[in-house]
Hints:
The protein has 180 residues and is mostly helical. The chain has helices at 2-14, 21-35, 46-52, 54-67, 70-109, 116-124, 130-135, 141-153, 171-178; strands spanning 127-128, 158-162, 165-169. Helix 3 crosses helix 5 and helix 5 packs antiparallel against helix 9. The model has no long low-confidence stretch (mean pLDDT 93).
Amino acid sequence: xxxxxxxxxxxxxxxxxxxxxxxxxxxxxxxxxxxxxxxxxxxxxxxxxxxxxxxxxxxxxxxxxxxxxxxxxxxxxxxxxxxxxxxxxxxxxxxxxxxxxxxxxxxxxxxxxxxxxxxxxxxxxxxxxxxxxxxxxxxxxxxxxxxxxxxxxxxxxxxxxxxxxxxxxxxxxxxxxxxx
Length: 180
């Protein structure tokens, strides 16, 4: 974790690109954590913490550059990782709770429609397409179209038209992912 903090500082300090240094630095953090097997999937969203603590973030970076205050920088980065990881776990717990609630609600309202695959498909992304359900072998295009319409009528999903296609938003999942 300390090496991770050093890597991020070095990337920010040399500022190798005219644009995108922050994004590149954050991606390097995730790749490094994956490489040393501290992170199986790069799902930690550090940007939110940096944005919320922008003044402190830049202050700590400046502290290393101007005063060689590595200790404060490393502690800041460790706090960033802890806070972000805890946030991620809380969000994951909410997603799991939502999946369980949706499963129970759909099972109650639509016992013949309910399958584990349906719940998983509706929970993979904050939106779904008819084709996603067909690809998951939940039914034919006509059947899954009826399922999606029924789920929308009961308030599980909200549809939006994007071009010629209709997307079905899992708005409760979207609220969790957006931190609402």
